[in-house]
Amino acid sequence: MNLTVKNVSKRYGESVALQDCSLTVQQGTFTAIIGPNGSGKSTLLRVASLLEEPDRGEVIYVDGTRVLEKDIALRRRISVVLSGNTLFNDSVFNNVAFGLRIRGYKREMVSEKVHEILGLVQLSNRSRRNARTLSTGEAQRAVLARALVTEPEYLFLDEPTASLDPLNTELIEAVLRESSSRNGMTIVMITHNMFQAKRLAERVLFMYRGRVKEDAESNRFFTTPRDELARRFISGEMVW
Ligand SMILES: Nc1ncnc2c1ncn2[C@@H]1O[C@H](COP(=O)(O)OP(=O)(O)OP(=O)(O)O)[C@@H](O)[C@H]1O
Ligand SMILES: [Mg+2]
Predict the structure, then answer these.
(1) Disulfide-capable partner of 168 in 4, 40, 164, 223 (CB 3.0 to 4.6 Å)?
(2) What does the domain layout of the chain look like in residue ranges?
(3) What mean pLDDT do residues 138-156 have?
(4) What is the pTM of this model?
(5) Average pLDDT over residues 197-213
């Protein structure tokens, strides 16, 4: 299934979060969204993942030639990892099991899948712990496990490794790389870490003041960005 965001605009009161943004995401690709604070990255992610409605424009998911209804069936093919710790006040196991239970999976299947995914993010020994007691790195791995356990076709991530140390970052990157390359998951990830964007993404969107200023193949973008602000941004100059 492919995604098209078409001429999307969104404002919150006086503040304009997105202005006429358009992009397409092909199934199986890995896209990084970068740009300064307040440039609209998280808003674009929420709108594209169907968590929020745009004021203008359209978000369209297409399977072959069929435009999909924005119903529960489509939403269940999409997982979103928002920024920060979004775990509920319950055990790690129950947090991760949530998506499977609402889909009506049988008890044994829930248990099997949860344990498998907790193994993948190296949290097998934290299964019974209350999620609120996890360290930042552990919590972020649990959040990722909760998003992955339902085997989504689309995975959206808002700064999944913000405030993590290199070891946790590497672990999460490895899981994302594996999900993308082996399982063909389509991934759209916001990051402030340019090295991470380079390492993982095949395509980069540079956002500035609510607009997608550059949409490019990753290697080309990081070697020769066409947009002057993008060039300054990735070379560490101040961009306002
Ligand atoms: N729920 C909201 N209510 C009011 N204003 C909002 C809301 N969400 C976003 N905005 C505003 O929209 C603009 C874009 O915000 P957004 O969070 O999308 O930026 P961002 O690129 O994700 O920034 P950051 O890198 O700091 O996370 C900002 O000016 C922000 O204040
Ligand atoms: Mg944000």
Answers:
(1) 164
(2) 2-234
(3) 98
(4) 0.97
(5) 97
Q: Are 174 and 148 in contact (CB under 8 A)?
A: no
Q: Is 41 in the pocket of ligand 1 (CB under 6 A)?
A: yes
Contact 231, 225 (CB under 8 A): yes
Question: Is the CB of 29 within 6 Å of ligand 1?
Answer: no
Q: Residue 87: is it exposed, middle or buried by C-beta count within 10 angstroms (0-12/13-18/19+)? A: buried
Q: Answer yes or no: is the C-beta of 17 below 6 A from any ligand 1 atom.
A: yes
Q: Which ligand is nearest to the CA of 158?
A: 2
Query: Which ligand 1 atom is at minimum distance from the Cα of 190?
Result: 22
Give the mean model confidence (pLDDT) for residues 188-205.
Answer: 97
- Over residues 23-70, the pLDDT tens digits come to 999 999 999 999 999 999 999 999 999 999 999 999 999 999 999 999
| Residue 191 in contact with ligand 1 by CB distance below 6 A | no
**Dist. CA 66 → ligand 2 center (Å):** 32
CB 39 less than 6 A from any atom of ligand 1: yes
Q: For residue 175, what pLDDT is reported?
A: 97
Q: Which residues contact 102 (CB under 8 A, 6 or more apart)?
A: none
How crowded is residue 86: how many other Cβ atoms within 10 Å of its Cβ? 16
